[in-house]
Amino acid sequence: MKKSARGALLTAGGGVYWGLSGSMGQYLFTKQGMDARWLVPIRLFLAGVILFIYCRARMGKYVYSPWKTKRDTKDLLIYGLLGISLCQFLYFRTIQLSTAGAATILQDLSPVMILIVECIHRHEKPGIFDVLSIILALVGVTLITTHGRMELGIPAGALLCGVLCAGCVTVYNCYPRHLLAHFPVVVLQAWSFLMGGLLFAFVFRIWQYSYVPNLMGIFGIAFVVVVGNVLAFTMYMQGVKEIGPEKGILYGFAEPVTAAIVTGIMGTPFTLGDGLGFACIFAMLVMISLSKRKQQA
Hints:
By secondary structure, the protein is mainly alpha-helical. The chain has helices at residues 3-30, 36-59, 70-97, 100-107, 110-122, 128-146, 156-174, 177-182, 185-204, 215-243, 245-251, 254-265, 272-296. The protein contains 13 helices and no strands.
C-alpha cells in the first residue's frame, strides 16, 4: 500500500474511533453520572501505562530518549500537555456540557486554525478557497450551536471549551514536526498520556470524588481508554506523520460523521439547522482540500 493511502486510512480510522469514543463519553456522562474531571485523568493515565509498557517491552531504554535534550523535552511538554492532554479534557468537558456531536463539530474548527497557522508560517496570504472555508466554518458552527435559531443552542461554557479544544488540535497537528521526525508516535503518545493523566489527577484531585463505576461504567472507561486513546491517537498521529497535518486533519472528517450517526441513534434531537451546519463544515473541508491541491499544482 502506498504511504499516502496508508496515511489517509490511518487518520480516517483514528477519526472513526474518536467519534465512537466521544459517543461513549456522552453515555458515561448522561447515563453513568461520571464527570469529565474524574474520567479524563483516569483515561489518560491508563492509556499512558498501556503504551509505556508496550514501548518498554519493544524498545527498552529507548523509550526515555525524548527527554535527553532540552529541545525535545520542551517540545514534548508542549505537545503532550497543551496539545494532546488538554485537548482530551476540553473535548470531554464539551461533551459533558452539550453532546458528542456538538463537541466534535466545534473541534472541527481546527482545519481553519491550521490553515491560518500554515499561511503565517509560509508568509502567504490566504487564497479564495481559504477565505471561503473560514466563512463556511463560522456559518456551520453558528448553525450547529444555535440549532438554526436566533439563540444559543448549547451552553456558552460548551462553546468556549469546544473552540479551545480546536486550538489544542491545532497545536498537536502543527507543532510536533521535529518530534515526529525523530521519535516513534507510540513513544510520544505514551509520555503525553502519562503526563496529562498525572497532571489532571492532581489539578482536579480525583481522589476526592466518591464515584464508584458499575460494570457498564467500567466497560465504558475501558472503551474510551483503548479505542479513544490507545488506538485513535496512535493511528491518527502515525497518519499525520506520513501525510502531514494539512491532509491528516481533512481525513479526520470521519469523526463528526461517526459522532453524528451514533448521537442520533442515542436519541439526541437533530434539527434542520444542525444538518445545514454539518453541510457547511463538510463544504469547508472540501474548500481546504481544493486550496491544498491548487498550491501543489
